[in-house]
Request: fold
Amino acid sequence: MKIIDGALSRGPRPTLLVAASVIVVGAILIFFAVRGGRSFETRKPPPPVPVTAARVVRRDVPIFLEGLGTVQAFNTVTLKVRVDGTLDAVSFTEGQDVKAGDVLARIDPRPYRAALDQAVAKKAQDESQLPSARRDLERFEALSKKNFATEQNLERQRATIGQLEATIKADEAMIERAQIDLGFTTIKAPIDGRIGLRQVDVGNVVHASDSGGLAVISQLHPIAVLFTLPADDVPAITEGMRRGRLPVAIYRYDESKKLADGELLTIESTIDQATGTIRVKATSPNADDALWPGEAVRAHLRL
Reply:
C-alpha cells in the first residue's frame, strides 16, 4: 500500500494479475504448438516395408548339436632327461616350432663316454681269454681219448669256456647300456609341435628323477576340441558316424565369430552319470593358429 495525497492507495487488483498470467501462458502454448506443427509437417513418413513371396518347398535342412568345450593340444610331451648330468647346451628358442628328431638340449657326455670305453675294454679282456680256454679243451679231449686226462678235468674246462662266453655276453649288454646312456645325453624332440617356456637354464645339474622337465611341446597342427553333449544325443551321433565323417564348426564361446572348421574324431566310451552328458572330441587342422590350447569355444556338430 502507498499513501498518495493523504489517501491510502492499494496496488493492482488480483483479477488483473490473473488475466495477465493467462495471456502470457496462452501465448507460450500457441508458440510451441505452431512450432511443433511445422516440425511434424516437415518430417517424412517411414519408408514402406518390402514384402516378398516364395514358393513353399520340401527339402532337407542341416541338424546341429551344440556344446561348450575347450581347445586342447592334440599331443603334449614334457621333455625330461633320462640321465643325470650338467646341462651343457639348450638349442631351442621359447615358442619355436620343432620337428621330431630336432636336437633341443645336451647333457655333459664325458662320464657316459668313459663308461662306454670301460665296457668295451672289459669285453676285449674277456674275449682274449676265450681262445686259450678253447685250445686247452681241445688238448684235454685228445688226452681223454688216450686215457691221459680225467673226465673231471674235461668237464671243468668246458665249464670255464661257458663262463667266459657268458661273461662276454654280459659285457655286450654293458656296452649296449652305456651306448644308450650316452645317447640320452642328446635330448631330441619326440613329436612335431610348438615348444613352450624353458624351465631349466644352462649350467644346472639335472636328474632323471626330477619331477619337472626342460619344457613342454604341444602339437597344434592338428589340434583337438573337447566338448560335451547330452547323453540323449548318443544314438544320433553314432548313427551319423556310421554314415561317414561329421563336420564340426568351432566358434568363440559367445558365438560372435567362427574360428575354424573340423570334424568329429570320437566320443567317450562312457556317459557321465552325474551330469547326464558325454564328452565328444573333434579335430581341426588349425592352419592359421586360430585355436589355442585352453581356449573356451562352442562347437556345432552337424549330423
